[in-house]
Specification:
Aspartate Aminotransferase, domain 2; 13% strand; binds pyridoxal-5'-phosphate; 8-stranded mixed sheet; alpha/beta; 42% helix; 2 domains; Aspartate Aminotransferase, domain 1; single chain; 426 residues
Length: 426
Amino acid sequence: MTTSNQPHSYGAMSRTELEALEITLVQKYDEIAAAKLALDLTRGKPSSEQLNLSNELDGILKGQYILQDGTDVRNYGGLLGIPEARALGASILETNADEILVGGNASLTLMHQYLAFMQPIWKQECPEGVKFICPVPGYDRHFTLCEHFNIEMIPVSFNGQDPDLDQIERLVQQDPSIKGIWCVPKYSNPTGTTYSETAVKRFSMLPKISGDNFRIMWDNAYAVHHLSDAPDQLANLMALARHHDTNDSMVLFGSTSKVTFAGAGISFLGTSREKLGEFEQHLSETMIGFDKVNQLRHVLFLKDMSGIARHMARHAALLKPRFALTEKILSKYLAGKRIGEWSRPNGGYFVSFDAIPGQAKEIITLAANVGVRLTPAGATFPYGLDPEDRNIRLAPTFPALDSLQQALEVFVVCVQLASVRHYLKS
Ligand SMILES: Cc1ncc(COP(=O)(O)O)c(C=O)c1O
């Protein structure tokens, strides 16, 4: 039942009501413009307070560079990483330590190197061109990597918390030139959802119906990045894949970028032992080994999964107020008006906002014109093309709380203004 103090859905308003609302919103918008703001909601990076949580990394070695097995971490060698860091990566990505390679400060580099490694194999099988499935909305840098390697991207939508697996299975079965799929299975960028157990099971069997050398790029960037005391649970892809004998097709990625220092962490790649050996061979043409000194620092600092959980709880304490504020402002100004939907993630770094179709670009332009930068419209889709022009990725982690509040208050005015004009036109 509708009560008088419930907000009006814009679609149910009369023209006169909409016109009056537009006048009020334009007034607010002009006041914002006069304030000459310079705010930024684009950056999915940790705040300085979060980075401070890991300052102990600096100096933690106290001159000790020799591992238990006698390895001197300052020297060349050990391309797969030091055993202690491989074990740490294995516990984060939930696989075996001998299936892990520890890389430098960016898992993105490992993704790039892995795609480069697969290029000759795929090109030989599919001289006409290779395709990848990209669940959307998704992570723009995955799409950039595909563009770089000339991999054609096929967008597939989410169906609730999971990418549409019926469609994925159909596509993969029909077209052997589809050689891979990007997945951010936990606290997905940007939707914040975690794949269901059923979905993970189906993913583990996908290589059974695909063409040869199909790869699931399982980017578990937010594996330990919980915001809730009841974290999402992700089924273990690699364990399922071993069971179905598909583990050669699984490539797990992760890093400590949003655990310790975003610019000076360590990264991980996990796959079957056999495929890891082949990838190691490929990498050995470009380097003798990654930074093992930093690997040791990370092992001493984070120690194990309990250490990581304690450390991530400190991150969560800093992040929760930012996500709570985002939810508070969005629901205060937008709930019940049917002009937008947004995610309420249990972890990760983003809130995904869906405007009325056709309004995302307009909202982003309105915000930019009064000094609030939002992630460009379409960034969460391959080739920058959001077919419905409705998804906007909000990144609440970096700004201080007062700046975040200001930026969100501008955002909701822009959403309302774009939406009221939409209804006035229709
Ligand atoms: C899904 C996802 N993968 C990877 C990265 C980048 O990770 P790294 O710093 O390890 O390259 C990000 C950063 O935003 C991300 O959201």
